[in-house]
Design brief:
Chain A contains 17 helices and nine strands. By secondary structure, chain A is of the alpha/beta class. In chain A, strand 5, helix 12 and strand 6 form a beta-alpha-beta unit. The mean pLDDT of chain A is about 95.
Chain lengths: ~350, ~350
């Protein structure tokens, strides 16, 4: 058993079943909060904002002041890594990310070691936040998982990923080489985050959907496993949360094969699948519908109670199945968190 | 055991494990075939094409002449029902369906009985095809499932369904009323199709993805069950294939709860989930990646062999996980079908 001051999130990740689950929300920091929208106006562009430790730390801490959350997650973006590897990345207002042409794989491979240095500000953000955060609240670091990051690198923008999925069939060797570069850069980045104060590491595989099982094994299971093994080989025992969003029934394959401490479930996860993953010895996280959080009302309360009833007999972290939507009323976010924490 | 002339598809749907699975492909008729593209130019618009029995029968039969398929599926569209209920529906070239304002639910409820008469041409198409098709090849009728059709009716076009999913939370009673109208109209439409020669009925729930389990029970499981019970109450024992596309782990809930004879699996279905559904007494169908069919090559052959190896120890129908893409080379379609049939 852990110390009473051990953050609730770390206790759940160590496999403890708790009186009530720890709670945090994906995108708890960001556009749903008016103070973030104000803060954001002080930076020229989104990438600069993420690379400014004072501003990013402030964005990370804003929801912690408003809500009784059990964890903070560093304010950053999954596309900082391709930028650090030499691909141009920018954000078009209201349209999302844009990326320049994919550099040659060998050129990016040569940049892997240097890329971690180019992400040093994210380590600074973590140090600032950890120094200001109460000890009973955990700090989460994260990275985009290789396949998801590769879809943006290959397609140059958000998409339905059909071009990237076709590339996986037509150019398997090239894709594997790109994933290898990303595995190495991501492992180093996460080691740096852990050394800078991150107590939990999360891998966001935002685009695990629509993949056939054999492809999923090759481009999701294998790279996630490789990253975690590399981080462990560096002497870091920080727990991992893996989030294969949209993987459907393949989430169970993921849970059985990838050495994460917890599996984050998306909105459509079934109660029994979550229970089977808990029975298999892993913590689960999820999976309130972000549309219901935005809609609010008695259905929101009922669903929160239902999720806790179905999953809190094992190690469980309360969260959404996807990120907080920008137009979610702040009252709904607060109401949901307080319903979980009971205060 | 069935007669030797019983179509292979019907044997699989009766629960038989066969030496090789029957094979058909979603969207086997349509834009991937040059003869369809030629035929399509003879009709003013897509809706008129679907309502012309001679042309629709010809489109249905075109792939049957080219390929050794085990089944034909009537050429029609899931949006013929809302049109028959009084909502305006049209297709913008290259952009997909557009729908006019949603009529009042009560007005549509009054049109349910008449709607089946307005779909009489689809029955004529089935009669023409059944008369021309060899007896060992089965004929499939279909309808869009209520929730999927409702998303188009509510949003007026194809979309990410977030408006419809939000409507499900904010206006549950109105949505239930709309689904009830669609259940009744769909059941009547399918009874008419069975009486016109359809030997199998398929329910396409194309947008079962991203739904929370409680919502999935209410808007997918319940309406599908109601439709099948109504068709059975009308004295029709035609087997059903249900396709809850994108439902992930909830496909198992669907298989356990909805009285379909077969569950169609999408691209990301896991081998073990399919096997569990077979062990539960149902036939499964699926789930070759349509992107791999388009890409072709040795990876296509290997995956076809892999799917048969993982699922043909139980009742299994070979198909794609989604429809044939319009730019799929005809050679790849033929190669894939012949690899399954062995001729």
């Amino acid at each position: 058993m852990s110390e009473p001051t051990t953050p609730r999130l770390l206790r759940a990740l160590a496999g403890e079943t708790l009186d009530r689950p720890p709670v945090w929300f994906m995108r708890q920091a960001g556009r749903s909060l008016p103070e973030y929208r104000e803060l954001r106006t002080r930076a020229q562009d989104f990438i600069s904002f993420c690379h400014d430790p004072e501003m990013a730390a402030e964005a990370t801490l804003q929801p912690m002041r408003r809500f009784p959350l059990d964890a903070a997650i560093v304010f950053a973006d999954i596309l900082l890594i391709p930028r650090a590897l030499g691909q141009k990345v920018w954000f078009e207002t209201g349209e999302g990310p844009r990326l320049g042409p994919l550099p040659p794989i060998e050129a990016m491979a040569d940049q892997v070691e240097a890329s971690t240095g180019r992400l040093a500000e994210i380590g600074e953000t973590l140090k600032i936040v950890r120094a200001k955060l109460e000890p009973e609240r955990a700090l989460i670091g994260f990275a985009g998982a290789p396949w998801t990051v590769a879809t943006y690198m290959l397609e140059g923008r958000g998409s339905d990923r059909s071009a990237a999925r076709t590339y996986a069939y037509q150019h398997p060797d090239e894709l594997d080489a790109l994933l290898d570069v990303l595995v190495e850069a991501t492992a180093r980045y996460l080691v740096m985050q852990a050394k800078s104060g991150a107590q939990v590491l999360k891998l966001f595989e935002s685009w695990a959907e629509h993949l056939a099982e054999d492809v999923f094994e090759r481009i999701v299971v294998k790279p996630h496993t490789a990253i975690i093994e590399k981080v462990r080989a560096a002497g870091i025992d920080t727990p991992f949360i893996g989030f294969p969003r949209g993987a459907g029934a393949l989430v169970e394959t993921y849970a059985a094969r990838v050495p994460v401490e917890a599996v984050a479930l998306d909105t459509q996860a079934s109660a029994v699948m979550g229970q089977r993953i808990q029975d298999g010895g892993k913590t689960i996280q999820g999976a309130l519908d972000n549309l219901l959080l935005r809609a609010g009302g008695p259905a929101l309360d009922a669903r929160i109670d239902g999720l806790i009833a179905q999953w809190n007999d094992g190690p469980y972290i309360f969260n959404l199945g996807h990120g907080v939507l920008p137009d979610t009323p702040v009252e709904n976010i607060e109401r949901a968190i307080r319903r979980v924490t009971g205060n």
